[in-house]
Specification:
about 500 residues; alpha+beta; Peroxisomal Thiolase, Chain A, domain 1; OB fold (Dihydrolipoamide Acetyltransferase, E2P); 2 domains; seven-stranded antiparallel sheet; about 30% helix
């Protein structure tokens, strides 16, 4: 029986050059805190399985192995990961499964980022790792999260892709542009208030919905409809560590039963990997399947869940999760504060959520909680269900077939690389500059046969402004192909 017995977290907000941190040091400190939390520093040298989530704020190759050396750990299973925010949950499930199978007795998961202590990062370099140069096993997906066509239209970074989901979700809920922004701000206000009470959160100022929704110089629109205060904050120094050991080892170390928390259900599900092929941009069938599988495995339902941490890189991800689960509007969707307020520490936000879930369930062992996460552009989902009460048996399955069920269930879409004529707007994003001026819009549009295309407009200021005030989704749009740039362009919406 695997048990979660120790957690450690760290946040360094200092701007003093003398106190700038390093992810390796942060992970070592958090591992020590996790052992201290479990009640015995002698646990660490006996670790036999260790996973380190990829650090994005440093270009590490051999360095992750230093964590084990500095802790005096000699694991027979040491993995470093690719990018992906589902990794904290997937690694926790992997470690629990190894313990249940007798392949491991004691495991440690570590993660850290030091963006705040870094120069402004080169995002393309940081997200294009050469995994072949690492001297240990690499765990995780290596597929590119965007196609060549998507990249051609700038649809690479999450900050420009998630507005496609947001605008489509707004339309699916029959909300006006103004009402959607206000409802989103109210959701964000809830998360900000949770962050205020969390000692490890990056922002603890409890922003109001009015502050979050009002456009100012400090809170400009980056990509419509999200203001800066609605975007995940990655410029953080944060770290976390989680200790998972066998029940037998927990007994041997004398770890009290009231310190033990259990993973009772989990899932890992791929949606259609690229946004070009999504069924639509307002729902997530992969997430629905992830919840379905995790709840079935745990033998529980959403009505039994007290604590929720739904992934919140951008508010629409949380909104889609709430809609998928049909949760009441009163639900608090985070236990640590969400990525815009707690901090979006690279790939490992959810490791902090798991650590906090351990703390909460120790205090209320009769309750259960969910930590849900996603990777990149909702390419992939994971969900973990946790309990403070020991299950009768460890029943997590390692079946693989459901992971790819969405890929097989829905056909790929035909993407028109060169198009001419009238199409229907499916969704869109408008990008703004630092002076508050719209500078570019990308739309997704369809023809009557359901073929899909991307198109851009970067010259009609009046048109770009109108897309932030008048609903364009569902309207007709004129498209022509610009051979000189190789891009489809739209000229007007009517």
């Amino acid at each position: 029986m695997p048990v979660l017995v120790g957690v450690g977290q760290l946040t360094n907000r200092s701007k003093d050059p003398e106190t700038k941190g390093d992810p390796i040091d942060y992970m070592v400190e958090c591992a020590k805190r996790a052992a201290e939390d479990a009640g015995d520093q002698d646990i660490l040298p006996q670790i036999d399985s260790m996973a380190i989530i990829r650090v994005m704020s440093r270009d590490y190759t051999h360095e992750p192995g230093q964590v084990a050396e500095l802790l005096g750990v000699k694991p027979n299973d040491l993995v470093y990961t690719t990018d992906g925010a589902t990794l904290p949950q997937i690694l926790t499930t992997r470690l629990c499964d190894r313990i249940a199978r007798g392949q491991s007795e004691m495991g440690l998961i570590c993660a850290a980022e030091a963006f705040h202590s870094s120069e402004k990062p080169d995002w393309k370099r940081l997200t294009s790792a050469d995994y072949g140069k690492f001297p240990f096993a690499v765990f995780g997906d290596r597929m590119d999260h965007a196609t060549a066509t998507e990249k051609k239209y700038g649809l690479y970074f999450p900050s420009i892709v998630y507005p496609l989901f947001a605008n489509a979700f707004r339309k699916s809920q029959n909300l006006t542009l103004e009402d959607y922004i206000w409802e989103t701000a109210l959701l964000c206000e809830k998360m900000s208030k949770v962050a205020q009470k969390n000692e490890y959160a990056w922002f603890r100022d409890a922003k109001s919905a009015l502050e979050i929704s009002t456009v100012t110089k400090e809170n400009r629109i980056i990509h419509y409809p999200f203001t800066k205060f609605m975007n995940a904050i990655m410029n953080v120094d944060q770290a976390a560590a989680l200790l998972v050991i066998s029940e037998g080892k927990a007994d041997a170390f004398g770890i009290p039963k009231d310190k033990r928390v259990y993973l009772i259900g989990s899932s890992e599900v791929y949606d259609k990997w690229h946004i070009s092929n999504r069924v639509n941009y307002s729902s997530a069938p992969g997430l629905e399947l992830a919840f379905e599988k995790a709840f079935a495995e745990a033998g529980t339902t959403k009505e039994d869940i007290e604590f929720w941490d739904l992934y919140s890189c951008f508010p629409v991800a949380t909104q889609i999760a709430i809609k998928t689960l049909n949760l009441p509007a009163s639900v608090t969707p985070t236990i640590i504060g969400g990525l815009p307020y707690f901090g979006g520490a690279g790939n490992h936000y959810s490791l902090h959520a798991i650590c906090e879930m351990v703390r909460l369930l120790r205090g209320s062992p009769e309750k259960k909680g969910v930590v849900q996460s996603l990777t990149w552009h909702m390419n992939k989902f994971s969900a973990g269900i946790y309990s403070g009460t020991r299950p009768e048996a460890y029943a997590l399955s390692s079946a693989e077939q459901y992971k790819y069920d969405i890929e097989n269930r829905f056909p790929n879409r035909t993407i028109l690389e060169a198009a001419q004529g009238t199409f229907i707007v499916e969704t869109y994003v408008v990008s703004y500059n630092r002076d508050g001026m719209p500078v570019l819009a990308v739309i997704v549009a369809n023809n009557e046969s359901g073929d899909r295309l991307f198109a851009v407009n970067d010259g009609n200021l009046a048109l770009l402004r109108s897309m932030s005030t008048v609903e364009p989704i569902g309207k007709r749009v004129n498209i022509y192909h610009d051979a000189s740039s190789g891009l489809n362009r739209f000229s007007d919406i009517f």
